[in-house]
Amino acid sequence: MKKNGRSKLIRRTHMYLALFLTPWVLVFALSSVIFNHFKFFSGGKPLSPFEQEAELPYEAVFSDDIEPREAGLQILRDLDREGAFFVARNQKLTAKRFTVNRNWAIGPERIHYLPQEKKVIVERQKVTPSALLVGLHLKHGVRHPGIAANLWRSSLAWRHFFC
Fold first, then answer.
1. Half-sphere exposure of residue 4, counting CA atoms within 13 Å on the CB side?
2. pTM assigned to the model
3. DSSP string, 85-153
4. pLDDT, position 1
5. Is the dihedral of CA 25, 29, 31, 36 positive or negative?
6. N or C: which end of the chain has fewer CB within 10 A?
7. What is the pLDDT of residue 3?
8. All residues at 6 or more sequence positions from 57 whose CB lies less than 8 Å from its CB, including other chains
9. Low-confidence residues of the chain: pLDDT under 50
10. Are 24 and 155 within 8 A, CB to CB?
11. What is the DSSP letter of 56?
């Protein structure tokens, strides 16, 4: 019996999609179990607190009409810490504290800019399996520079196309 070319294409597509998507589905399922039973997996402990890593003098000149995201990007560039970050839209540079949140695979980082004191405080969260899992889920969008963001954006596009 001769195999139909269309049937063969469907079978191969199904097989390769399963091979490609199975790790993603397994990680998603595992993380869902961990999130839903967090107390069991963390031993009842909350995520570890942020610890101060550095306190640096920082003087910057911002334009009056600068958006919070642009200000955050300028702060990160000045500190040579570019990459994926998140800034709350309602923050003002005239406030006591302006916070930039960085999402690293090795643990989140917060940078507090204190304009009155002309300094920045860099804080990091200790890396634990729970913190790592939360950090991987809190990506805050895909519009970030870099290879990792491009790969993440591509994997999401493929998943939405095939699922």
1. 4
2. 0.67
3. EE--TT--TTSS-EEEEE--TT--EEEEEETTTTEEEEEEEPP-HHHHHHHHH----S---SHHHHHHH
4. 45
5. positive
6. N
7. 64
8. 118, 119
9. 1
10. yes
11. E
